[in-house]
Amino acid sequence: MLKALVISLFVMSCTVPAMATCNGTVFNPVTDIAWNGLFPIRVGGVAVASNNNAPDGATGTVNPICTCTTSSGTFIGTQIGFWDVAYLVEVVDDPYCSTVVGTTVGNDNGSHQGTNDKSVATPHTFKQVHWWPFNAIQLLGMLTGLSCIQQVPLQMTYLSEIDPSWTEDWLAMLKDPKVFLVANPVADIACGAKNAIAQVPGNFFPAAYDSLFWCGWDNIYPLSGNSNSPHNLTASAQIAARQIYTNTQFGTVEDYLVDSQGCSGQIVPVWKSSQWRFQLAKPVKSSTPFWAGESELIWGSGRAPTYNDKNFLYVLFQKKRCCQKIYGGQ
Which of 55, 174, 175, 311 is the most exposed place for a label (fewest CB within 10 A)? Predict the structure, then answer.
């Protein structure tokens, strides 16, 4: 049922090439998501559920009382803070491979095939990526009624195979002029400091972690499918981070901690890394979410053996603060 529904969302004709290696199971939110990533959940500033294996790194106080004004009037509520299962990101070697659907959804005869060069002189990895907004919490009937839960069906909204800038770095550079400020050796070295912060367990990230916005394992730029990492898992996670970065600055992903009342999300110019957690769902599920920059040795050991296809699926958790209505409004 789910498989047929997802495939029907595509406007293109879906054919499976004879040599396709993209074979797997349909994404199952119940079993493929590490649900401990939702925690801690705070209601009115009090933690009602927590998990020591998934610390809360995002800053922002959850207040007992909040007041919001909408088109239907003003209401009083209490703030709820949690980590929303907001998006899925497929990072794949095989063109048009969907690890959500479990099969190939198009055919280009391999012209956009992923690559992985582990040479010492010129390490390089290239992968395709697909972006899926996903309202998993509402789908499962959890935390219902919150305005910060996106009301969207499961659907693919970005397909890198049809984006020329994904394969050409010089085209990707034209999309974001900031590349000329931070795509340099000095900025690259600074990413090492951010990665070091990401290895520290606990629930506190200094402001430096978010201030180094151009870093996500390595330099985010260029915003293409090319990575300088020779490691498939690390490169795929970095490419997933680029999607958060790109969608944030283009306004399709909102920040839910800027509004102190928790009434609505707001568009911000750059992402804040501490508001995002990553979880590997396929080919092998990671047991708990991890931060951008956290070593593959911690979260990826044994989860991408060389005999497996290099087609990955990441679940993205976004930190949110919402005002749950108690009284007023319509």
Answer: 174
